[in-house]
Specification:
heterodimer, A: 77 residues, alpha+beta, three-stranded mixed β-sheet, 3 helices, 36% helix, 19% strand, elongated, B: 582 residues, alpha/beta, Rossmann fold, 5 domains, six-stranded parallel β-sheet, globular
């Protein structure tokens, strides 16, 4: 089992070099950061100080699901 | 016109930056950006039209309670900052039929844009909320959920925008760690709970037991169920203390259980000798701690639940569609020693909802420029940028991205200082490349009156509530590595059918992120009696070294069933983690 989920991790799973990996959710990190920045600038000061963003387990079986590919780290924007 | 200039400035910057890293990318980006310009202007016009309207967000809690007042407080707070209206209707009692009536009548009004609901029953509320959804009105469930609570790919429904609320298993773990620490890591522990079969309190107990199982000198001596009757809890506790007079600590899984347990301890004449921990933090819990009936309690953060629900509702109504489906809110441990601190009292559940006012606005949020400075070029940081830009599109702010070529604190500092010198940045989102070296540069930003969020990594100890040496950033947004290790561990254990030998490949000891992943992984390993840990090797981020070590290990332990690699060998993280470890 590995950690992180970019094109190389995907290839390694498809090739059978490892079986699973743990995707972090960097796109959620961006969404929270943007939402908080906006809310703060609009006057909200009491925002949560710590925002954990969660994980997604990628396996051979789900690697082509849209729900999984949503968490593949983006090659470009 | 001003807006167009802003867009141009961003384009020029993007172009200049990309020139330095890859011309193929640069020309592609330039064309795309030019084509998107007209579309962007059109979007902005639409946005202004939408913003003219005052959104109405309905809030339907489960019953009258200080906990639900606090959620409302957070919602009102977000509403005041962002400019929407909250319409609250509270059922008199916790009753699915009554709550359904209220939801249907709010729906019939025809002027509600969004629903924030505390479902009183995970099955019975599916249909009423489905009616709301089918009418084209989005729904967030807060505190509780419908179906299995997994709106990403759960059953039988996934239509709500998000489920915002505490993770009860995590709460049980936090309570367990606090209680174990209070008794010096050894002694007998006993649990008071309400009834078996209730998901929230069962999960709290489960999380508590995960901690108990971790400590060899902690002995679990039983659980009793009081059916929310605190005098029954007191009697059960007194009886237990007769058969086990040396109990060191008791966990009450909710308020009545803790109160009863505390009274039982007092009646047995053992007040002060047995530590009692409760769950939740309203005026009664506070009084019970002040009176010494129990020693500690675990505050949930309903205020944050309201704030998240409000921010999400607004962002969704402004067009944001990729919001996280699950928002866990954290906990705060209240003890006799910190009970009067302002930081503690912030989490006291609100006895009433007062008129909430947000602070003065700094700039108009929809004309703001948000600078994003990641650690280096990588797909991981592209994904963060993608999320930021989705929010920028929905809410109308500009994202100004500048990426250091390599993971280097001095280089990142230069970039931050030059962005600051421009004088037109309203907010910074930074991935600090070093937890110490970036303190001063980020402090300069804050001293200039510009707020900062750190994302993925942090400065100081990462605790901006009451940590050291700094707490000035607005927030730290990022994964919890211990949690990641646990999630990985559970997945791997499940893949090998709950039994067999496991081995770990890690980079170097002393790196906080990968050490925490290993720690979380081991918490899971220790939970399963048929899983044997056969060792860890450190490869110094050299994947061929890792391959040799693994081959050698497989010779001495040919029946290894699973291996956890604490990071991937794609190379980029290597540099990141080394930098972070300094």
């Amino acid at each position: 089992m590995g950690y992180d989920f970019d094109a190389i991790d995907k290839e390694n799973i498809e090739k059978g070099i490892y079986d699973m990996t743990l995707a972090q959710k960097p796109s959620n990190m961006g969404i929270y950061s943007g939402l908080f920045a906006y809310a703060y600038l609009m006057g909200a000061r009491d925002l949560p100080k710590r925002v954990p963003t969660g994980y997604f387990v990628v396996t051979k079986d789900n690697i082509d699901d849209p729900e999984t590919l949503k968490w593949l780290y983006k090659q470009e924007l | 016109m001003k807006r167009k200039l802003v867009i141009l400035a961003v384009l020029v910057l993007t172009f200049v930056f990309l020139m330095g890293t890859g011309t193929a990318l640069a020309s592609k980006d330039k064309e795309g950006a030019a084509a998107g310009k007209a579309e962007k202007a059109e979007k902005a016009e639409k946005k202004e039209a939408v913003a003219e309207k005052t959104f109405k967000v309905a809030y339907v809690p489960g019953m009258v309670h200080t906990f639900y007042n606090s959620i409302e407080w957070g919602l009102e707070y977000a509403a005041d900052a962002l400019g929407f209206e909250v319409v609250t209707q509270i059922p008199d009692t916790w009753d699915a039929a009554l709550q359904t009536q209220i939801i249907d009548s709010l729906l019939a009004r025809g002027d509600i844009d969004f629903f924030v609901v505390v479902p009183t029953d995970k099955d019975a509320l599916i249909e009423p909320l489905k009616r709301v959804h089918d009418a084209g009105i989005p729904v967030i469930t807060v505190d509780t959920f419908i179906g299995d609570g997994n709106y990403e790919k759960g059953h039988p429904v996934t239509f709500p925008v998000a489920y915002v609320g505490s993770d009860n298993t995590e709460g049980g773990r936090v309570a367990g760690e606090a209680l174990v620490k209070a008794i010096g890591g050894k002694g007998k522990v006993y649990v008071q709970n309400v009834l078996p079969g209730i998901s929230t309190t069962d999960q709290r107990f489960e999380g508590f037991m995960q901690v108990v199982d971790k400590y060899p000198d902690i002995e679990f001596v039983g659980i009793d169920y009081n059916e929310t009757d605190s005098s029954k809890a007191a009697n059960q506790t007194a009886a237990k203390l007769q058969s086990e007079p040396d109990i060191a600590a008791i966990f009450g899984c909710q308020s009545n259980s803790a109160q009863g347990a505390g009274l039982g301890v007092q009646n047995a004449g053992l007040a002060g000798k047995v530590k009692v921990m409760g769950y939740d933090f309203d005026a009664i819990d506070k009084e019970n701690i002040e009176k010494g009936i129990y020693d500690m309690t675990l505050a949930q953060k309903p205020l944050d639940m309201g704030i998240y629900s409000g921010l999400f509702a607004y962002a969704y109504l402004m067009g944001a569609r990729d919001l996280p489906k699950r928002v866990p809110t954290g906990y705060f441990v209240v003890t006799k020693d910190n009970i009067d601190d302002p930081e503690t009292l912030k989490w006291l559940y609100k006895p009433e909802v007062k008129n909430v006012q947000a602070a003065e606005k700094m700039v108009k949020g929809d004309r703001a420029k948000v600078a994003y400075v990641p650690g280096m070029v990588h797909t991981f940081y592209n994904s963060i940028q993608w999320g930021l830009e989705r929010m920028g599109d929905a809410l109308g702010f500009e994202v100004v991205t500048q990426i250091p070529d390599t993971w280097d604190a001095a280089l990142q500092t230069q970039i931050i200082d030059s962005l600051l010198a421009r004088g037109d940045i309203d907010f910074f989102v930074v991935v600090p490349t070093d937890k110490d070296a970036l303190i001063e540069p980020l402090k300069r930003i804050t001293s200039a009156g510009i707020p900062v969020i750190t994302v993925d990594t942090f400065i100081g100890d990462g605790n901006y509530e009451k940590g050291h040496p700094v707490t000035f950033p607005v927030s730290y947004v990022g994964s919890d590595n211990t949690e990641g290790g646990r999630v990985a561990g559970e997945a791997l254990v499940s893949a090998v059918g709950g039994k067999g030998k496991v081995y770990v490949q890690n980079v170097l000891p002393g790196i906080s992120t990968t050490d925490q992943r290993f720690e979380g992984f081991m918490q899971v390993v220790e939970k399963y009696p048929d899983i044997t840990f056969v060792g860890i090797d450190y490869n110094e981020t050299d994947s061929s070294k890792a391959a040799n070590q693994t081959a050698a290990k497989l010779q001495s332990e040919p029946d290894i069933a699973a291996i956890f690699g604490c990071q991937s060998d794609s190379g980029y993280r290597t540099r990141g983690w080394r930098a972070r470890s300094r």
